[in-house]
Model the fold of this input.
Amino acid sequence: MTVRPMAHDGPVFGVDVQSGDIRGDAPSYALVVLEEREVDGEREEQLERDVVSFRKLCRLIEQREPTRVATDNAYELAEDKDALVHFLQSLPAGTKLVQVTGAQRPEPLSRVADRYGVPYGKQPMEEAEAAARLAAANVGYEVTAFTDTTTLKVARGRSTGKGGWSEDRYTRRIHGSVKKRTREVESELEDAGLEFTREVTEKYGGFSNAIFTVEAPPEEIPVSRSRSGDTRVEIERERRDGIEYEPLVKRRDRVIVGIDPGTTTAAAIVDLNGKPLSVYSSRTADAAAVTEWIVERGRPALVAADVTPMPETVEKFRRSFDAAGWTPDSDLPIDEKLHRTREAAYDNDHERDALAAALFAYDAHEAQFERISRKVPARVDTDEVIARVLAEETSVEIVLEEMLEEDGDTDEESDAHQEPELTEEQRKIRRLERQVERLEGHVEDLRGQLEEKDETIEEYEEKLSSARRKERREARRHREVTKLERKAERLERERDEAREEVEELERKLERIKTLWKLDHDDFSEVAEGRGLVSVKVLDQFTKGEIDRVKSEYGLVPGDVVYLRDASGAGRTTAELLAETEPRVVLKEGGLSEIADAILFDREIPVAPADDVTIQEVDELAVAREREVEAAIDDWKDRANDRRRQQKAEMVDRLISEHRAESGGP
Done:
């Protein structure tokens, strides 16, 4: 496919890195300026080539305001996204940055140039020229970070803090000038027929500033940036969320169209990959309106109906688009149409039928589309080949041959109109002339920037003073807040500690109440004078359990102790219990030998818990006094027997030892 440069209102810049890198060393760029100028009533193409620094490139863009700055990679002009946004913001209103190799996933420049028949070489200057020619032919994507909404601000052109006369009169005059300029801008926007909103800040004598939000890009706004006396006008485009790539020309791709005629006419668009794109239906639209809707969304390669034969209305649409037609072997059943369109969105049965016709047409040609795609070279438009094969009912090879012949004719015609380029001496003279003009303009720009910086410094000093006052107020407030927060934390800690103490006291109160009930209410035997004794319950015979009962209920001499599980106690545990001098120990299970010996030696009675009736309420218990006495008496009898046995064993042992020492029988 060969492209021909198109006429533009200004030059097209092609740029490629000559040396260095934007992220490190100061880069230099190969710059090609492609421009069409009218000479003797005819338009001639003129090329200028130069190697420039990044700063010089920016100055040239600002001075010559090219329609497009073309490159094979936008990030050759910016080190990151923020820098790219800043570069885009610095471009003149009518200048677009164009990435000719594609959007987020660019192709090699050589492949794009070959596809469109643009001369290409590997040298930076040749790549810059290829980029310029491609952009001039509307190939590529505009790199943009802004919407079509523009903020226009009318503000004071100088500070109100000083003046040649009374400060109040001076301020009133400036605010009056801002108000007057605001009305002028508003009038210009209304005359241009632009949609906008206005917000003003009223001050003494007029406005301190006015902000217009205009629904148009800067190049369509009849107001430009300016600074004049008491007022200045600033223009800034609204930022997008990120970097976006928009095609220079919205290409109308080849599509498959399904049509369902009738009282309500419906149409559906499917691309050549079988993806539904859009549906439409109307009871009032005529054929012209339907045709316009289809044309806005693509170029039909195939027009389909869901019935056989093709209705006359659908046939007229097919002929008007010069497209191939498709109908099923028999009318499509409703259940098949429902199944085929189950994943697509539509509003009514008519849209469903049109969409089903397009999708079934794609299904019928899917294998053919794949075969054609495999045969088409990379530089040829596959969709166009498919459309021609369908419409002409011919082979892929014949269509490719016809398209290549057409491109060859275009190349010859283009070559015939090539004009010789300027000589090196002529180009050098022009470069020097432009350089002088740029330097003179640069001096004026620097003077203006110096004045603006002086005013900016004054504004910043006022802001700094205000910020310092605010910071001092914030510091005082922060100290007070910190002091109150510390006090609140201390009070919260004291509150939590008091709550814990109250809870502990409530638990102790409940235990005391329980004991009181045991002594006065729960057992009628107390009233009858039969006598009960409280029992201290230990779940296990361990030091930890002894300490717990001591802490919660107390263990004092004369207490009756009940061991739910007497096993496992060692010497230390037994001695700890013996130190409390219990009246008797009632046990479940067997004591260890060492524990039994220690309690026996300390003359602490030990009896089985089964010998005494123990009545429990929660963790408290009581037993009958007479049963406790009986258990103690029984232990005393057993203790006497045990002592007599121990004495007999000791006498026998002494006799045995004496006989052993004397050697007698």
In short: The first strand starts at residue 12 and ends at 19.
